[in-house]
Amino acid sequence: MLARLASKRLLEIRQAFRQIPQANRSFSTALNYHIDTPENNPKVPWEFSEANKPKVNEILSHYPSNYKQSAVIPLLDLAQQQHGGWLPVSAMDAVAKVIEVAPIRVYEVGKYHLLVCGTTPCMIRGSREIEDALLKHLGVKRNEVTKDGLFSVGEMECMGCCVNAPMITVADYSNGSEGYTYNYYEDVTPKRVVEIVEALKRGEKPPRGTQNPERVNCGPAGGNTTLLGEPKPPPCRDLDAC
Q: Is the omega angle on the peptide bond into residue 166 within 30 degrees of 0, that is, cis?
């Protein structure tokens, strides 16, 4: 009952808002949502071109099959390129269908998509605190976009470097789908992920990989404590002759 009343009230607001002259609406941010027009509404047919369908599959191949939603920004960028520089709502709906999410998840994305690893090793090492630090610093909830349109925060399963847990990835689409990068930041802390965000805001590219100054790649922090030299050979290589 409440859902029907809310839906009816929203429809009334939309109908009233459409009566406001376009000039006034263009200066208003009080009600920020899509307004259907003859050339831009969900009923206008839209799909990826035959030339772009292989690109869609190539983009999807970068992500686990159960995390297709991580491909939302490069697919939106591809759709925008195909449509001549802007995104109709039907194109966004087409992307939502490809990645199997509700359309609202496609309407709200950022230029830098921050994904926190939520698999067990990272969770044990504090990934929930990492996510909380990002959401608090950016002032958003998971899958929301910041007001400046720069950042959104999501979760991804297993980024493949459990030895350097916890970690995040930054999907950087500031240069479009052809020039986007996918950078992993390992051994992060709540303080360090905030520093990474601030560096991205300044247009900097923080060094990727481990953020632990005592670690080299995936080696032990502080250096090796075993196998410091050549191992000694067995006393007799021909075991049958020993």
A: yes
Nearest-angstrom CA–CA distance, 193 and 131 = 9
131 Cα distance to chain centroid? 13
Taking CA atoms, 30 is separated from 10, 35, 86, in Å, by 14, 14, 23
Q: What percent of the chain has pLDDT over 90?
A: 41
- The band of 126, judged by pLDDT with boundaries at 50, 70 and 90, is very high
C-alpha span between 141 and 105 (Å, rounded)? 12
162 marked as part of a ligand binding site: yes
Would you say 73 and 109 are in contact if contact means Cβ atoms under 8 Å apart?
yes
Provide the total of helices (H) and of strands (E) in the chain, helices listed first. Answer: 9, 5
122 in a known ligand binding site: yes
Could you tell me the pTM of the whole model? 0.59
- CA dist., res. 241 & res. 104, Å (int): 73
Give, as one character, the DSSP assignment of residue 40: B
Residue whose C-alpha is closest to residue 75's, from 51, 97, 53, 59: 59
Alpha-helical (H) ranges within 38-114 are 53-60, 72-82, 89-99, 103-107
Q: Which of 96, 90, 89 is nearest to 75 (CA)?
A: 96
The annotation status of 158 as a binding-site residue, yes or no, is yes
What is the phi/psi pair of residue 169, to 5°? Answer: -125, 145
